[in-house]
Amino acid sequence: MRILISIGLAALCATAALAQHIDNARGPVPVMEEHTPPPLQNPDNSDVRRQRAYAMQPPIIPHKIEGYQTDRNANRCMMCHARTRTEQSQAPMISVSHFTDRDGNFLAELSPRRYFCLQCHVPQVPVKPLVENRYIDVETMLRRGGSASTLPGKE
Amino acid sequence: MIRLLKRYWLVIRRPSVHYSLGFLTVGGFIGGVLFWGGFNTALEATNTEAFCIGCHEMHDNVYRELQPTIHFSNRSGVRATCPDCHVPHRWTAKIARKMQASKEVWGKIFGTVDTPEKFENMRLALAMNEWRRLKANNSLECRNCHDFQSMDFTRQSPRAQTAHSTSLASGERTCIDCHIGIAHRLPDLSDAHSLAEKHGGPHVLPALVGGTPMEEPQRQE
Q1: Is the ipTM of this complex over 0.85?
Q2: Any chain B CB within 8 A of the CB of A45?
């Protein structure tokens, strides 16, 4: 009986400890409770190019892509961003890096390994970040002198 | 042959012996109303979504594909059903389309697209049928709801504003030139050009897959 009670108590404590643990991505809701997700937001549709966070960053998609088909039949993105379509669409052409295969050979059109655009390029939704972003642009870093002691976490 | 026709002509010309003029006119009128009412009811019955998706070919392929799109699930609860886009609304054009549809009955009987594989093989030809029709009638079925005159450009995204106020306004391009694959999945487009040539040239293809404008641009007033 005593053992049972102690097991029960331990279980209670464990649940309490679990309830205390809060995951930022999940919000302030205990793990064992159902969470009501926030309403979906409309993605950015402004068509304004954004600054890249670093030189090699795949540019983000500044427009809605709902229902865009990318499969073996058709690639909706390439109907505007392909080399042959850009004059009509005035969309930026896919970068020249997208024409090379993995051995560095230049192909006539989009390399198959680059076919699935959303593997790198994503649309943006105006929501509050769930966790604090401590990313520092390299320009800012250079201006500060680049010492590790100036990182916000170490101040 | 001529003698046979002559005999029938005489029968039709001869006045009625047993029936009164009143019976024939009133009876003819009532019969006409019943016939026309029945014909129209039957025609309208074939013009419903329930009728279209009564066959598994439509229910399991195109209807499934329609469901996640904006014309089926949206915030305002307005829905475009199959005949809204695929059957002309004007009576003569509707009857013409219904006559063409007899070929679809043939397809149903002989199972032209009765498996997903067969449907996938026919997809480009089927899409070309619709593209050709919408290019030729200046996207009439789109415009039955989406009126160019009623579009508020200030409520559109910059891209949409640009496209609609230039190519669409000048009549150089029509809705289907850009808005392809919005209600159903796109076919394999690698072969579209050769098929377009077979169906009358690049002007039957939408602009997004390399089509050229129709030979006579249809101007929007």
Answers
A1: no
A2: yes
Task: Determine the average pLDDT of the residues in A79-106.
Answer: 92
Contacts A85 to B, Cβ<8 Å = 208
Chain B: closest CA distance from residue A8 (Å):
48
Choose among A66, A73, A84: nearest Cβ to B186.
A73
Domain A47-128: which topology? Flavocytochrome C3; Chain A, domain 2 (1.10.1130)
> Would you list the domain boundaries of chain B?
25-209
Q: Where does B25-209 sit in CATH, by number?
A: 1.10.3820.10
pLDDT confidence bin for B18, thresholds 50/70/90 = confident
Quick: pLDDT tens for B182-210: 999 999 988 888 888 887 788 888 888 87
Taking contacts as CB-CB distances below 8 angstroms, the residues of chain B near A77 are none
Is residue B29 scored above 80 in pLDDT?
yes
- Spacing of C-alpha A89 from chain mean position: 26
| pTM, 2 dp | 0.79
User: Under a CB-based contact definition with an 8 Å cutoff, are residues A86 and A131 in contact?
Assistant: no
Query: Residue B14: exposed, middle, or buried by beta-carbon count in 10 A (0-12, 13-18, 19+)?
Result: exposed
Contact between B181 and A90 using a beta-carbon 8 Å cutoff: no
Q: Is the pLDDT of residue A21 over 70?
A: no
Question: Do the Cβ atoms of B157 and A74 come within 8 Å?
Answer: no
b/e B33-49 (16+ beta carbons within 10 angstroms → b): eeeeeeeeeeeeeebeb
